[in-house]
Amino acid sequence: MNPSRWSSQYRTYRNRLARRDGPAGPEVLISRRAGDVYVAGCWHLPSGHLDGPWEDMVTSLVRETREETGVVVDPADVRAAVTVHHRSPAGHARVGVFFEVRRWRGTPQVMEPQVCDAMG
């Protein structure tokens, strides 16, 4: 299959499962989507897309994590977790690539209030 045809047919996105051991047990970072975005009002793992063909998934994850949550992730702390192929409610094919991040620096906060209104 022609790669450009594939990329136009499938929406690929990248999620990070930010999980670490906290004082009270495991902690998972989630955010609530807001505004005029896909599934507004739903809690989800922070996610994003590549900025272009020059950006790999780990670089994108590090960049988007800082932009969306204010925390800093070392690329060495990123591990591939699972890939999921599914359909959106409208029936469009989507491919999600999930990564686990077990360490980060900083305190998570809402950095893009136009698309996220809470973090937990």
Please characterize this protein's 3D structure:
With 120 residues, this protein is an alpha+beta fold. It has a single domain, classed as Alpha-Beta Complex (Nucleoside Triphosphate Pyrophosphohydrolase). 17% of the residues lie in helices and 38% in strands. It contains two helices and eight strands. Strands 1, 2, 5, 6 and 7 form a five-stranded mixed β-sheet that branches. Strands 4-3-8 form a three-stranded antiparallel β-sheet, with no helix packed on it. The longest helix is centred in the middle third of the chain and has 13 residues, at 57-69. Residues 1-10 have low confidence and may be disordered. It holds the Pfam family NUDIX. This is Nudix hydrolase domain-containing protein. It comes from Streptomyces brasiliensis. Residues 9-120 form the Nudix hydrolase domain.
Q: What's the helix and strand layout?
A:
Elements: H1 3-9, E1 11-22, E2 25-28, E3 31-33, E4 43-44, E5 47-48, H2 57-69, E6 78-87, E7 93-101, E8 116-119
Parallel strand pairs: 1-7
Antiparallel strand pairs: 1-2, 1-5, 3-4, 3-8, 6-7
Protein name: Nudix hydrolase domain-containing protein
Domain Nudix hydrolase: 9-120
